[in-house]
Structures are given as C-alpha cells and as structure tokens.
C-alpha cells in the first residue's frame, strides 16, 4: 500500500493518523507456512459436500443475517444455546466488534504480549487504551499476579489460548480468576484450540462466567480461511450486545453454507486435526534433533505452528523464501520475540522441505560469519 500523504492524514481522525495498513509480508511462494492455515488436502467427500451446499445457495438473495441454521449447528457442537453464538466474517471481525461494543476511549484493554497483534491494533481503532502485561522472557509464561492486578480496573482482558505465536495454553482456573478480578469482559481467543489437548477449552466456564467470551474460527482446523468465518460464544446478553454492533450481512451466504457443510463433516475434520497434531510433534522432534548441532531453540506448542529462536533469523527467513520457496513468519524484530520465526505445521512433504532448507541455510550463515557450529 502507498504511504498516506500528510494532506489525507489531516482529514483522518487524529488518533488514527500514525497507524499503518496491515502487511504480514506475504508473497507468492511454493510452500506457505507463514499464516497458520490448514495446508492439508481436503477430501473428495468434503469437496463434494461443499459443491452440494453451494448449489443450494440463492446468490440473488441476502444471506440470513442471523445465520440461524449455522448458529444452531454451532450451538450443538459447543454445548451451548443458539442465543449464545454470534457468527462473524472471520474471528478478526468478531474481535473488532467486541472491542467496539465494550472498549473505547477511557475503557482499558489488558493484553499479555507477545500475543496476537490484532488485539492492540483493533483497540487503537476504537480509541481504547491498551495495558500490556508482558509474558516472562525465556519461556513466555504469563505474569499471573500482574495480569489479575491489571484486570481489576479494565473494561476488557484478552488472553489467547493456544497463544499466537508462543503456542502455550492458559489454565482454565486462571481464566476463572481473571473473570473474578475483572469487572468487564474477559475474552479467550481459541482460534487454535482444536489442536490443543482435550480439556483445554474454557468454553465449559461459560456456564458460571457471565462476562466470558470465547472466540473461534473456521480458518484453522476447518480448512476455510478463505471463506472468512468465525464465531463467538458468550452469555446470551453479551452475545446480543455483540450482535448489535455487527454489520448485518457480514457473513455471506456462501460462507454460511460452507461452514454448515463442514460441521456435518466434523468426524473427518477431527481426524485431520489428529494428523496435523501428530505432524506438529514430528516436526518439533526433527527441529529438536537439530538443536544438538545448531543453536536453535524450539518452544513447545499446542497449536498448528511452532516458534523457533535462532541466530540470524531474518536472513534465514529471507533465504528460505528466495532459495527454497518456503515462507515462514518473521517475528525477530517484534518486541519480546528477538530471533524468533514462526512456522506453521504443513504437510509432511512441506515440513521436510522447510527442515532441509532451514538446516542448510542456518549452517551456511553460521559458517560464513565464522561462528562455530
Ligand atoms: N485469533 C488468532 C489468535 C489468530 O491467529 C487469527 C488468525 N491469524 C485470528 C484470531 C483471526 O482468524 P480469522 O481468520 O477467523 O479472522
């Protein structure tokens, strides 16, 4: 995107002038392991179900703004009432709407970085102050006492579980304590929860926690990142408040139909998720083997990505893209993430290609700079 000229900036809301358009530095590559998508093939049966679902969509008609059928299916999946489900154009839209409804000027949002950057970005868009409670350097553990302390005066506290990009999950009892401490909304972003162990979701807490909101998406375990479909779970009143600020037709008819089709293929999706989790462990194991020889640190992850720390991370990432056609995400210049790259778990073939290039390039960088391996 072009830079915003001063003349245009003067026309903008003053508090938004220094923000920049989102740019994750994507580029066309053969193997894209940079966005935590699901890169595994979708089965013929699922593709056929998509076709059948799309054939039934009346494109000349507006979609059901309340997405009743989809919400009913999601409610059943999650063990909540349909009134507790709000759908959105990707979890991103739901996050923005939640901040729009409950945060804003003078309404503080607590976040625990390093974490998903959109929380702070969306908070800025709605003019909400952000209070950062940094995770511990080294292992990224949450600073629980400071988090609870900060939450006491906040309008919203946000945790991501598994956390992007560090991969760790939050304990449900900490979420309950946060809900007790915070007078406002407590959001737990579970975009990656399908890849985490059983019992990791905090959705069961919705029963007793009236101000808890759980965010989910079809972009990860379900292979529908391009369809832009997410959903939020909350107490009925909170869900209604969220629905009040949403764009009425933000979830189009095609996406609603695809989501419904995939919920019917849930058993198959679960099998795919198990395969991705097994591949994550295999990839982590292969990376840990490298640590015997190379100065690489691999962080444990319950998501569909791994965070690794290494010397010359930016150069290695750049060379991986240009020489091997493998794109991973560079966090090495992000606060708290010095030397870190995030690699999405791909298929075994994609991951092997990444591993071979990664080891070769890192060895060559260390050698070139005279650093012993
Ligand atoms: N939350 C987290 C933690 C994410 O990583 C992402 C996607 N990168 C989202 C939310 C947004 O997901 P969606 O594609 O549903 O907008």
Layout of helices and strands, plus pairs?
Blueprint: H1 6-11, E1 31-32, H2 44-55, H3 68-78, E2 85-88, H4 90-102, E3 109-111, H5 118-125, E4 130-132, H6 144-151, E5 156-160, H7 172-181, E6 185-189, E7 212-217, E8 230-234, H8 236-245, H9 253-264, H10 266-290, E9 297-298, E10 305-309, H11 313-324, E11 326-327, E12 329-330, E13 340-344, H12 348-368
Parallel strand pairs: 1-11, 3-4, 3-5, 5-6, 6-7
Antiparallel strand pairs: 2-8, 7-8, 9-10, 10-13, 12-13
Bound molecules: 4'-deoxy-4'-aminopyridoxal-5'-phosphate.
Residues 36, 90-92, 116, 160, 164, 189, 191, 217, 219, 225, 230 line the site of 4'-deoxy-4'-aminopyridoxal-5'-phosphate (PMP).
Summarize it.
Helix content is 40%, strand content 13%.
How would you describe this protein?
The chain is an alpha/beta fold and 373 residues long. It folds into two domains: 6-40 and 267-368, Aspartate Aminotransferase, domain 1 (Alpha-Beta Complex), CATH 3.90.1150; 44-265, Aspartate Aminotransferase, domain 2. The chain is 40% helix and 13% strand. It is built from twelve helices and 13 strands. It has helices at residues 6-11, 44-55, 68-78, 90-102, 118-125, 144-151, 172-181, 236-245, 253-264, 266-290, 313-324, 348-368; strands at residues 31-32, 85-88, 109-111, 130-132, 156-160, 185-189, 212-217, 230-234, 297-298, 305-309, 326-327, 329-330, 340-344. The strands form three sheets. Strands 2-8-7-6-5-3-4 form a seven-stranded mixed sheet, with helices on both faces. Helix 5 (118-125) links the parallel strand 3 (109-111) and strand 4 (130-132). Helix 2 (44-55) crosses helix 9 (253-264), helix 6 (144-151) runs parallel beside helix 7 (172-181) and helix 11 (313-324) packs across helix 12. The longest helix is centred in the C-terminal third of the chain and has 25 residues, at 266-290. The protein is globular and about 60 Å long. The protein starts with 5 loop residues before the first helix and ends in a 5-residue tail after the last helix. The mean pLDDT is 96. 4'-deoxy-4'-aminopyridoxal-5'-phosphate is lined by residues 36, 90-92, 116, 160, 164, 189, 191, 217, 219, 225, 230.
């Amino acid at each position: 995107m072009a830079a915003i000229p001063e003349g245009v900036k003067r026309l903008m809301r003053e508090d938004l002038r220094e923000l920049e358009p989102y740019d994750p530095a994507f580029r066309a590559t053969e193997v894209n392991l940079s966005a935590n998508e699901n890169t595994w093939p979708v089965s013929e049966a699922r593709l056929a179900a998509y076709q059948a679902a799309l054939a039934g969509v009346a494109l000349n008609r507006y979609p059901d703004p309340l997405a009743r059928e989809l919400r009913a299916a999601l409610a059943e999946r999650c063990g909540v009432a349909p009134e507790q489900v709000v759908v959105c154009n990707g979890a991103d839209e739901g996050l923005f709407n939640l901040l729009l409804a409950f945060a804003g000027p003078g309404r503080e949002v607590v976040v625990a970085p390093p974490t998903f950057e959109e929380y702070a970005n969306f908070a800025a868009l709605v003019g909400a102050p952000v209070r950062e409670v940094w995770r511990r350097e080294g292992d990224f553990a949450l600073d629980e006492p400071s988090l609870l302390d900060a939450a006491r005066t906040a309008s919203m506290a946000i945790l991501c579980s598994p956390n992007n990009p560090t991969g760790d999950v939050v304990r449900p009892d900490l979420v309950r304590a946060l809900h007790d401490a915070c007078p406002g909304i407590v959001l737990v972003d579970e975009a990656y929860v399908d890849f985490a162990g059983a019992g990791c979701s905090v959705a069961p807490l919705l029963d007793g926690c009236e101000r808890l909101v759980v965010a989910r998406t079809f972009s990860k375990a379900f292979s529908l990142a391009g369809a832009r479909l997410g959903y939020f779970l909350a107490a009925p009143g909170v869900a209604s408040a969220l629905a009040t600020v949403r764009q009425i037709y933000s979830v189009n008819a095609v996406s609603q139909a695809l989501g419904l089709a995939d919920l019917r293929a849930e058993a198959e999706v679960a099998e795919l998720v198990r395969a991705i989790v097994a591949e994550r462990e295999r990839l982590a194991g292969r990376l840990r083997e490298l640590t015997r020889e190379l100065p690489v640190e691999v962080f444990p992850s319950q998501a569909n990505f791994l965070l690794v720390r290494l010397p010359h991370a930016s150069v290695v990432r750049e060379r991986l893209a240009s020489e091997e056609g493998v794109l991973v995400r560079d966090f090495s210049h992000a606060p708290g993430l010095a030397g870190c790259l995030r690699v999405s778990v791909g298929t075994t073939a994609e991951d092997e290609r990444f591993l071979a290039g990664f080891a070769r390039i890192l060895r060559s960088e260390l050698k070139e700079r005279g650093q012993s391996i």
